[in-house]
């Protein structure tokens, strides 16, 4: 159990971290936050360095405790953009505490998690060695991480990724894999300037042209790209069993997400690949009316992929459809991964979770979201798990009023501490 | 011919008018501009009043010269919004003059036209009586004009509408009718907040839902609304003849519009109804990537209608498609109209144009754009023509860097003056 003093120190560092903006999409505050983090890690006795990647730097740290096992702790210090700003009840980087919750961009995803692990590390007295790899580009698809990891080749027996947090019933989630990702922007340009819409019979409208392409990518139900579903790995019996155990209350989940209606089955969140439009823009979007044929239109699209889909193959199929009809920019490409439920790191994680939460954890074959597990898998590491988080479905990750219940933050410190001990001894 | 002094006075008032922002979509500067205009009209000896409409006011003026004919001069003092602001080389309300061109929002559409007519009026010495009806909502679909005109019932023998300007070859255009308009915004809401896109398998994406609706409205070539093409009035032989005479250089037009490619035939601009997307928005549209399922999506759509399509019927068919899947806002509904080529006002317009420009004017059955001719037609007036403009296809109406060649502005003053004389004597 944490002392009051330990809690106060942990909270102080959490607030400081949240008050450092670090928006990877725009670059705002990235370098300053990396420096702050390096200093904090040094304060805890970790040998830390800021390492260049060609993009936003990695904060890398090592602590050799003399044992024969090394745990690599992966996190990210960057956060999502904050818009729509007017929907925040407190400024997104103010770290205001209200009713036992802390509010701020990154509170849940994933500054709280990193602080919890670092505080737990500082309490840990065993002989497990640590490597901390904290990147600054997770929210923009970890663009430079694969090259960085390939060059650095950090040796480790197991990896713990950014944690999945708690489900609607407060049970800790242990996630054995990740979905992959392909994030692209398609831009159609039909003119050098907006044109009076009286010319619509003779000029091409970029939105209609974009919609034609989008209709060829997705039919409203299924992705239409060539071979998209072909490589999907069938679920193993163990995985099917894990999924069958899921007993998420859909109505509760719906409310916490703020969705008016849900579709499908909760299992699909883990096993169904998607084609999602994150944003679309063209022409006049202010108040009232303006009669123009816009000069250009764009859409931002993410494909979430399941094992064994290959983002590179999906991208090729996409290019075959788009041809020269749109400009294509890639903002992220990540491999899907699934780790065996029998791995040591998984067992240690389950045991420590039971101890701290007095509840059976929820074990999931892979996350609904994406984390760059693939780069560690490619190093030959087969013990990779995503767990120890601070958020819940109502934490508003990626949305306004992101928040974390402080109780969950303190629990995460305990969980990390117990896990380090369990894992050293298995 | 205008004296230097007359030109200077006209230009001074033109600059002043342009320096008054009057964006009907947002309301910016509307009341101030209406006051300025009323004072200017009074300065010229017109009995002017500001009349409430329930929206932006009408500036209404009368000048009784004792003859047996009254001409109603219709214009508007409002302008389109100015975005994208960063594409303007001068601030949109600076009225900068460079190389014999004046730059500013409204220069062509249609502040220059109104100034030209008012200056011509002040020179006119005949017995034709005038009514000036200058509205402030033309660019947002003349929402309150029908009710205003129906209440006011201004008597007149003929109406001249906002002028069509000059074609790519510098020939004055005389337009005998207008396309109709239906302008709507469709908004699809699927959640109360943006949701992390890892939930895409179980939540509805508002963009895909919006696209489903858009696909039911338009197939990329033709409007799919029920009965949309049924009421279209067949072209009369006279109208076919007018269209056959059109000899617009498509390549020149393409360049001046800034379009990369044109489709169809120039005649379609006058006889083909359209479904155009003026703007679309959803989710994250900043730099880089953000992985969300947006909470809502909207599209602004204008339908341009040809005689005898009825905007109310089109709207009903639209609602049948949309059902309860989107919120529908209406920003404009205008009837299409075509006046006979044998009307007196048309003959006077053609004769005066020939005199001033020493070129045969281009006579067109109806405009490609929309003006609220329908409300005057509904009063029983059958002599309605749109002519005497200052713009050309490269004037960038509705786009950044709207501009007018000063020479064309002065010519328009002369044309209006000659027209007043011609029309009094036919």
TrEMBL record, chains A, B:
Coiled-coil intervals, chain numbering:
236-263
InterPro entries (alphabetical): Cyt/Met_Dipeptidase, Peptidase_M20, Peptidase_M20_dimer
Any idea which GO molecular function terms this record carries? Answer: metal ion binding; peptidase activity
Q: Where are the transmembrane segments?
A: none
Instruction: Identify the Pfam families for this entry.
Output: M20_dimer (PF07687), Peptidase_M20 (PF01546)
Q: Key word Coiled coil present in the record?
A: yes
> Can you supply a Gene Ontology BP term from the record?
proteolysis
**What is the protein name stated in its UniProt record?**
M20/M25/M40 family metallo-hydrolase
Q: Which organism is it from?
A: Sulfurisphaera tokodaii
């Amino acid at each position: 159990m944490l002392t009051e003093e330990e809690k106060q120190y942990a909270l102080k560092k959490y607030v400081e971290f949240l008050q450092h903006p670090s928006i990877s999409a725009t670059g705002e505050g990235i370098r300053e936050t990396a420096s702050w983090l390096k200093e904090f890690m040094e304060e805890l006795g970790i040998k830390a360095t800021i390492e260049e990647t060609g993009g936003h730097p990695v904060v890398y740290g090592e602590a050799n405790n003399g044992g024969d096992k090394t745990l690599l702790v992966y996190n990210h210090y960057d956060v999502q953009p904050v818009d729509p700003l007017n929907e925040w009840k407190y400024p997104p980087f103010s770290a205001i505490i209200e009713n036992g919750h802390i509010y701020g961009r990154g509170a849940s995803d994933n500054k709280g998690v990193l602080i919890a692990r670092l505080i737990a590390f500082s309490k840990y007295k065993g002989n497990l060695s640590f490597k901390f790899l904290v990147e600054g580009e997770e929210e923009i698809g970890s663009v430079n991480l694969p090259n960085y990891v390939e060059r650095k080749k950090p040796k480790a027996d197991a990896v713990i990724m950014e944690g999945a947090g708690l489900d609607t019933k407060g049970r800790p989630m242990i996630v054995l894999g990740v979905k992959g990702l392909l994030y692209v922007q398609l831009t159609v340009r039909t003119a050098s300037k907006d044109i009076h819409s009286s010319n619509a019979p003779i000029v091409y409208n970029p939105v209609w042209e974009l919609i034609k392409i989008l209709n060829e990518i997705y039919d409203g139900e299924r992705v239409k790209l060539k071979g998209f579903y072909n490589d999907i790995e069938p679920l193993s019996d163990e995985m099917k069993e894990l999924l069958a155990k899921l007993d998420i209350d859909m109505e509760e989940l719906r409310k916490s997400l703020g969705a008016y209606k849900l579709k499908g089955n909760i299992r699909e969140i883990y096993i169904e690949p998607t084609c999602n439009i994150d944003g679309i823009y063209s022409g006049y979007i202010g108040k009232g009316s303006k009669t123009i044929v816009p000069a250009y239109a764009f859409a931002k699209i993410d494909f979430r992929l399941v094992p064994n889909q290959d983002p590179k193959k999906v991208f090729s199929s996409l290019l075959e459809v788009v041809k020269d009809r749109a400009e294509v920019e890639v903002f992220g490409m990540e491999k899907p991964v699934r780790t065996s439920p029998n791995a040591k790191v998984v067992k240690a994680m389950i045991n420590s979770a039971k101890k701290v939460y007095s509840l059976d954890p929820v074990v999931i074959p892979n996350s609904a979201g994406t984390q760059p597990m693939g780069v560690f898998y490619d190093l030959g590491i087969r013990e990779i798990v995503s767990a120890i988080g601070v958020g819940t479905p109502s934490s508003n990750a990626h949305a306004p009023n992101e928040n974390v219940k402080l109780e969950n933050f303190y629990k995460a410190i305990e969980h990390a501490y117990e896990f380090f001990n369990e894992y050293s001894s298995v």
